[in-house]
Amino acid sequence: MTTSTETIEQLATREYKHGFYTDVEQETIPRGLSEDVVRMISAKKDEPEWLLEWRLQAYRVWLTMREPSWGNIKYGPIDYQNIIYYAAPKQKKTLSSLDEVDPEIRRTFEKLGISLEEQKILSGVAVDAVFDSVSVATTFKEKLAGLGIIFCSFSEAVQNHPALVRKYLGTVVPYSDNFFATLNSAVFSDGSFAYIPKGVRCPMELSTYFRINAKETGQFERTLIIAEEGSYVSYLEGCTAPMRDENQLHAAVVELVALDNATIKYSTVQNWYPGDKDGKGGIYNFVTKRGKCQGVNSKITWTQVETGSAITWKYPGCILQGDNSIGEFYSVATTNNWQQADTGTKMIHLGKNTKSTIVSKGISAGHGQNTYRGLVKIAKGAKRAHNYSQCDSLLIGDKCGAHTFPYLEIKNSTARVEHEASTSKIGEDQIFYCRQRGLSSEDAVNMIVSGFCREVFRQLPMEFAVEAQKLLSISLEGSVG
Amino acid sequence: MLKVRNLHARVAGREILRGIDLSMNHGEVHAIMGPNGSGKSTLARVLSGHPEYEVTEGEVLFEGENLLEMEPEERARAGVFMAFQYPVEIPGVNNAYFLKAALNTMRKHRGEEELDAMEFMTLVRDRMKQLDMDEALLSRPVNEGFSGGEKKRNEIFQMAVLEPKLGVLDETDSGLDIDALRVVAHGVNTMRNADRSFLVVTHYQRLLNYIVPDVVHVLTDGRIIRSGGKELALELEDKGYGWLEEPVGLK
Q: Domain map of chain A by residue range?
């Protein structure tokens, strides 16, 4: 009772749970970015000539670009010449089974609670574990291969399925797309690749755990998922990173392609190091994620739970090209302490009868700043296109902020566009009410927050939803006394 | 069960309670009456541990324990329930979910098994019937969009589910029409037993026609200036509070 008057002002004091460092020998290249570095990365990965050319084109375009400044985020200048663009755990030989994985790396996964055996046995989830830049272990490949599904690291796809990579790479996010995506195109290290053949329903959730580990190593993931006609895939991406003082740049690109009658669900739980309670350190997360509903009746659903990173800048979008195609975006973004998030989506309606749904939930606590930025664009030919947007903000305390920037560009008079927005605050009175019913302050906040996010959590696969809820409560821990 | 000794409390720097003495036994219903601003609601909130109220002097023992040293949730778990004068809305949180979480927290505290969804619903349906409540309220967010009467009924309903040792009713009758008042009173009366006590804070005597108190206290200016049987309430209704403030022998 003595300190309770300042309950709401008290900020998180909790240490980042996944803050440890694994001592694995790293193979790195010198700091900085140049054409030579791009060539070196490509050579290390033994890439075909066309891919090197593609990287170099990107690099040359990047040199002419300027870092965007329109985001509602503040951060110090990034020195792109002071970044190491490639790091890979040293491997002596190719691995044929999990037993051959470096025990240090295995222990790290176990600490994170994602031991591969457990994943294999218990959850039936195929995990393509990306440790820094190179895949160290892949599971369930045979089972998937039986169905003709390709699920592997991006590098492997370049080696083993070059025609597919070449056909689709850059078709959704071209190498000249934006500053960060272009940088990624020049220097991307690795990532995931999935290909679901015609008519196949992928029998398990595909998932990748990303992890940034090498000190001062920028992470440039590249993911490409292709769903052929009538296929279905659900892909999960979850992230944790060790504690660091230096800010770490992360600029990933994800491209999704859905052909006729195909469905892709892409779910993300992002839990990178957010910086300490004074705003020191943390990941800078500048991500370009886009899906193309290329075929008729195709559907892409983005679901994201963003709890980590010092800065989050991402707008997973859908290009609704095929008639009757559907794009969905469900998002929970949390900012606590000094975190900043500028996130939302872009729904580009090109085909007839295309539909999009946007549900965005922003939670701000501490000094956190949370911005929703969304574009709904309805092209001339997109007859009877329909968009529904809902943007809700929840404030905890009075030092945080919530901002909403919806952009609408409508060129067709048959379009129907609805937008709803709300801002609410968790008040002392609500918390006291819950406490009077026997619930602790933390439980009260968690209950209110998960009630607020329910529409989004409902979109996540079950086991992921549980994890997301846990993460959310961890990231808000200490936001009330 | 409850012993309040020389309780002083203030809110926003202003002293509201100036030395309350009060003693309640198990099974008793005490009414606190008094004019507006006398400190009735403050007493209820101080007992429940509202963070805006600061206790400056005195002590409160609940079942022999020092209540003032306990956090609000500890008091609740120990069996102190407050029916709020202004029940708080919690958007997005389902009423049934909220109540189940509260009930299971209390049960866990008492070393009892948590109820599963089926057992919980059986209990809840029974209590809802008692209070003539629409079951649809269960699936709505806590108090959101409830009418004034529904909110008050919901408070008593929660109390009926949580089964506290001490129910503190903070002006539960305000804003209730006569039918709702009867229903609420019936809910409270059903819960009365030899162990459970109630502290009923009210401005009007009306409620006490239905919830008949054992003791009536009159609070003025932060002090109890008169205590008596249920007749005292009737006398007040008749003569008004001014009658008590004048008499000789009282400061």
A: 3-475
